[in-house]
Structures are given as structure tokens and as C-alpha cells.
Amino acid sequence: MSRRAPRSRNTTKVTRLLTCFLAASALVIGTVVPATAASAATSVAPTVARTAADPAQTGLAKTTLVGFTPGNIISDAVFTNKSTMTEAQIQTFFNSKVSRCLGGRDENNEPIVCLKDFRMNTVTRPGDQYCSGYSGAANESAARIIYRVAQACNINPQVLIVMLQKEQGLVTHTWPSAWRYRIALGQGCPDTAPCDPNYIGFFHQIYGAARQMQIYMEGKWFQWYAPGRTWNILWHPNSSCGSAPVRVANKATSALYYYTPYQPNSAALKAGYGTGNSCSSYGNRNFYNYFTDWFGSTQSAQIGEGSQAITAAWNAAGGIKGSWGNRLDAPKCSGVTVCGHVFEKVIAYWQEGSPLILATGAIAKWAISKGVAAVGYPNSNVVTVSENGGGTAQSFTKTLINAGPSGTFSLSGLTRTAHAELGGVRQAAGWPTSEKTCAAGGDQCVQTFQNAVISEVGGRALTVTDASVLKTYNAAGGPKGSLGIPTSNLVSSTASGGGKEQAFSNGAVSMSSAGVYAIIGEIRKAHSRAGGVSGELGWPLGAQSCGLADGGCSQSFQHGRAYLTGGVAKFVSGSVIDYYVAKGGPSGALGYPVSDTVKVTANGGGTAQSFAGGLVNAGPSGAFLMTGAIRTAHGAAGGVAGPLGWPTGEQKCGLAGGGCSQSFQNGTITVDGAGKATVSRQP
User: Of 533, 489, 486, whose CA–CA distance to 506 is shortest?
Assistant: First the structure.
């Protein structure tokens, strides 16, 4: 239990003073708390101070505390709403508050673990009239413990999260010492004595505090700050600072005053998250700050036409036991013109001057699971569609939700616009078959449909709608496959006989008279180096084929082939490809290409290419292989662009002394048995 006071007049950091958590004494020795709040409060002498997270370092904006009412800090309905967050949502929330944990070891040489990564073994606690009990388990996360305790004790998990922050700053702390977890909520830790060992440890703190809140609200053991009465509540532990009367409106607010028996003065309220004056206290102020900044209103209902209209419709539907189910949150109203409210089976949305709009069925179930913060509220009625297998669609303030043959999915942003331009679910694109997924940073997104794929790249929406392209793309694994996501629309080309091509992040799909084929990965890169469909290779004649020598792959094109081995692809084109294939390709003496085909215009022109087994030059007299010392001497003489020019025949060996020779346009190279090369040039 905590009270907050500034360290000194000069500091901007808020500190906490732990006060006696009244639960332990009331239950263990069976005493009844005295009936006068003022006298009991003055008997507590704070002696233990611990540092809270400095709001200036957490990135939280200051709040104006508009709406803070000392007699109604939080409503009973919000305080006890255990369904506000799932375990996954709690974990995601913790992850969002600490981008990087500093780690290391604390002052007692214990490992530093941030709340998002904290895990521990829990123990079994029997059920009673306050909590349904807890089955201990190994290696439970903080998010799981909070969620399970909230369910067992009927406490809003957001309340426990806020208490962790205001007590020890654990939610946003990037280097929390181990002792912060041991006394995370101040449970059983009086200011005037050591902490009760039965309450030491994160699990005991969470379970004990949640259970204690139910005991406080029961009103049997604790009668200070009882609802419906006015109490003089101190400004500060120093009784000389005085007090002021507060009419406590509900059980939840009384529980917060049992926990922290002080109210913020005007200086504390004006300071936002900062420090007030020497008579300021901060516990209940910061509870309100963190809750409203992180989770919205602390009140279960707002007075106004919108909330009244929604409540009236809910009651007409049977209330808690009706078709809508119980409330899952408080009405969220913007001024007096718009209100939204989430129930177990329905999301209601009211706009001034318009009939109430409801989301129900599969759409409501899906939207509730995602959270209205992500999808918004329904702003159109449900539309039933029979085309493409049938389903329902409904517009929300942040998205369009479609429940079709493949499930329920949302449409948003450029994808939603592009889908509408294709005719929506009624026409060719059809119903979504997946949710939109985006790469880190959100600059590339993709979503699949019955008869289309839509991507968002560079601020543009790109579509795959051609049936043949889509079939080939899906055969390659779709967005998660070898082609990746669309990065262009389908483009027509007149090059090399004409066709169409669509680019993807890791390849392309080409359509020509030869068929529809994917060009993927490194082979796609080689094809691009060759000039694409208008270059030296042209359109593909077949799909990529693997199983070649040494695990290689190849793909045939109009004017050549590309070969892939060792993660690198090279293209072979022109006269070189015919020679290479005739010599056995990768399985022959030449092996795989180690360079792309190169064009040379000198000495009549031709092409040249290096292979693992030698250099092939295809010039005016044909294609011929050069190896060893002859290749070296020819290169030293300037190659095919030099005075010798292109080869005019194959290398011949078996000369006297074991020599070899090869003829060229303007000379001959001879190599003797010792490997010495002689260049003979024609006059």
C-alpha cells in the first residue's frame, strides 16, 4: 500500500511511502477496524520510502486530471470487470512499454528482469468467498499471473497493472531490482514493521492484493470510508496538513482509500504527474492518471443521451441474461454526439440523430476479440451478400469487416480502397481469405482474397487478379512462398514476341505464348541482368527445374538458360548456350558457368563466357573452348579484342612432345609439353 510524497522541495521525482496493508492484521487477529477514519489515519507513521518510476522518463504525457472526483475515483463496474484484457493483450501491453530491458544485475547481484520478461513458479491457493483459488504452475509470466488472478478474484486486470506502476514503476521500468517484485504492491508491508514473509514474492503480492480488494469491498472487516457516507480524508501522512470531507460514492473508491488513505490536494492535481507541495500525496492521483492515460475512463457509464440509449436497448434485450450478454466496458462517448459500448455478444454504436447501430454474430465476436481500439465501432448496418459463397459485411469506424466462406477478416487502408475498386466481395476479387499482414515498419503489406491478392508497397495498392498469374503465384506458396508479395501490377510488353509480366518482391510471373511461369530468386536476378524479357534471354519457356549436378537448378528461356548453383545464378545465351548444351551442360566437362555471357564487338563480334572448365568464345567462326596455358596466353595477348582475335577452331593436342595448339583469326598459340606457350601471329 502506498502514499506518495516528493523527496524534497527541489526534486521532480515522486517517491512512495509504503503504509500498512490492513488486510493481514484484520484477517489474522480478527480485529475490526475502528469506525473513525481520521483517528486511524493519524496513527500510521510512514517509515519506508521507495523510489517510483519518474514519469518524466516514461514517455507518458501529463494529464490534466479532468474528471477526477475524490469520492468516485473508479466505478465498481470498471474495478471488478475481469474481462477487459486477455493474457495476450496484457503481454502485448507490457511489451509496448519497454522496448529494451537494460538487464545486468542489481545492487544485490541479482539478475535484472523487466516485467515483460518476468517469469516464476506459482503455488496453489485454495478458493474462498473472495477468490475462486489458484492452481500453481511452473514458469508463468507476469501477464499470465495477472490474468489468472483477475479471473479468480473478479478484479479488473487493468487495476492490478496500474497498481504495479504506481507502487514500484514496474510496468515501464527498464532496470528493476529484484526487491521490487518481492514487494510489488506493498501487500503485508507496514511502514512500522518488516514485511510479512507470507506475502513476499510477486505472486503472493498480486493474489493477496486482488483478494484484499474484495475483502475491502465486502465491508465486513473494514468500515472506514464506507460508501454512502462523508469522511474527513487527510491530504498527507503529516496530519498537520489537514483534511477535507469526501463523500465516498462506491465500494471501489473506498477500497482505494483503505489502500492509500490520502487524497491529492490542489497542488498535486495541478502538477499532473509532477510534484505539488509539502502537503501533497500522490497515490490515488497517480492511480487515476495511469488508468485514464492507459485504459480510458474509470467510470462505467456516462450521463447523456447516447449512453442512456445504449443502456435502454441493452435492458430491452434482457440485460445481463439477454442476447447481448454482460457489459465488457463502460460506454465510450465523445462529447454528446457519439457513444460506443462493448458487450459480450454485441457492439453498440450511437450517433446523435441516428438510430442505434449494432454489430452482432461472427462480426461482433471477431471485433471484440481484436478490441475496439483496433477496429473501432460499427458505423453501418450489417449487409448480407450471396455472391462468391455468401457472407456478411459491416463497416466500422476504423475498418471494414467481412465474414465470408473462409472466415472473418478486416479490410483497411489502401487495401480496402483497392478491393472496393475491384467490385468488393460481390465481384471478381471475392471475400478475404486472410488478414492483412505487414512487414516491420508497415511499409509493405499483403492480403489474400478468393480471386485476388492485394499488396501495399510504397504508398500504392497493387493487385494480382489474372487467374493464370494467381494460379502460378499460389502454387509458389502465395505471400509466404518463394515469390513474396506483389510489387507491381500486371504489365504488357511487345518485346521478344510479346507477353505480360508481374513483379513480386522475390521474382516475377511471366505470361507469353510459351505459357505462364514463375522466375524466382537468383535466377530472377540473372534474368534481370540479361535485360529481362526484352534482353538476351527473353520469355521463359518453362518453370525452374532442379536436380542437376551438385544440386543445381536451371530455367530455359527463348534465347538461353540460367543456371543456379551454390546460391548464385548465371545466364548463358546466344551461341554459347548451344555449344554448352552440346558439351553436356553442368554435367559435362565445362561444369557450371562462373560468369554471365558477355558481348564483345571487336574483330567481328561475338560472345564469351567463363565456366568452371574453361572459357568459351563464340565468334565469327563459331564457338570454341580455351583452357590452360593457351587461355592464359590468349588473355595476356589482349583476348578476343586483341591482335589474335577470336578462335577459329578447337584446341588440338597430341603434338610432338605432348604439346597443344589452337588457331585464331590472326595467329596461333602453341604450348609445348612443359607448358610453355608460344604465340605466332600472321603477318
Answer: 486
Backbone angles phi, psi at 415, to 5 degrees: -65, -45
Secondary structure (3-state) at 672: coil
CA 420 – CA 603 distance, rounded (Å): 60
HSE-up of 207 (CA within 13 Å, CB side)?
Answer: 24
Instruction: For the chain, report the end-to-end CA distance as a whole number of angstroms.
Output: 105
**Residue 199's pLDDT band (boundaries 50, 70, 90)?**
confident
Average per-residue pLDDT for the chain: 86
CA dist 585 and 591 (Å) reads: 7
Cβ contact 117:101 at 8 Å: yes
- What is the sign of the dihedral through the CA atoms of 472, 477, 481 and 485? positive
Find residue 608's DSSP bridge partners. 598, 617
Size of the chain in residues:
683
- The alpha carbon torsion through 113, 114, 117, 119 (nearest 10 deg) reads 60
- Per the CB < 8 A criterion, the answer to whether 383 and 363 are in contact is no
User: Are residues 502 and 513 in contact, defined by beta-carbon separation less than 8 angstroms?
Assistant: no
129 alpha carbon, distance to own chain's centre? 40
**SS3 label, residue 537:** coil
What Rg do the C-alpha atoms of the chain give, in angstroms?
A: 38
pLDDT in tens, 250-301: 999 999 999 889 999 999 998 888 899 999 999 999 999 898 778 777 875 4
Using 50, 70 and 90 to split pLDDT, how confident is the model at 118? very high
Confidence bin at 673 (pLDDT 50/70/90): confident
- Signed CA dihedral, 523, 529, 533, 535: sign only: negative
Q: How is 29-82 classified by DSSP, letter by letter?
A: H-PPPPS-HHHHHHT----EEEEPP-HHHHTPPP---TT--TT-SS-HHHHT-T
**Which tens digit of pLDDT belongs to each residue from 370-410?**
999 899 999 999 999 999 999 999 999 999 999 999 999 99
| Residue 175 near residue 28 (C-beta atoms within 8 A) | no
pLDDT digits (tens, 9 = 90+) for 348-374: 999 888 899 999 999 999 999 999 989
Cα gap 557→310, rounded to integer Å: 66
Q: What is the DSSP string of 489-535?
A: --EEE-GGG-EEEEEETTEEEEEETTEEEEEEHHHHHHHHHTTGGGS
Measured distance CA(558)–CA(305) in Å, rounded: 72
Picking from 329, 385, 376, the residue whose alpha carbon sits closest to that of residue 357 is 376
β-partners of residue 348 are: 341, 358
DSSP H stretches of helix in 244-370: 251-259, 266-270, 283-295, 305-316, 361-370
CA 274/CA 56 separation, integer angstroms? 8
DSSP state of 152: H
- Reading the block at residue 321, the C-alpha cell is 441474461
Rounded CA separation 293/649 (Å): 83
Structural element, H or E, at residue 450: none
| Grid cell for residue 111 | 539478475
CA distance 156 to 667: 93
Reduce the DSSP state of residue 6 to 3 states and report it. Answer: strand
pLDDT at position 318 is 86
Whole-number Å distance between alpha carbons of 579 and 537: 16
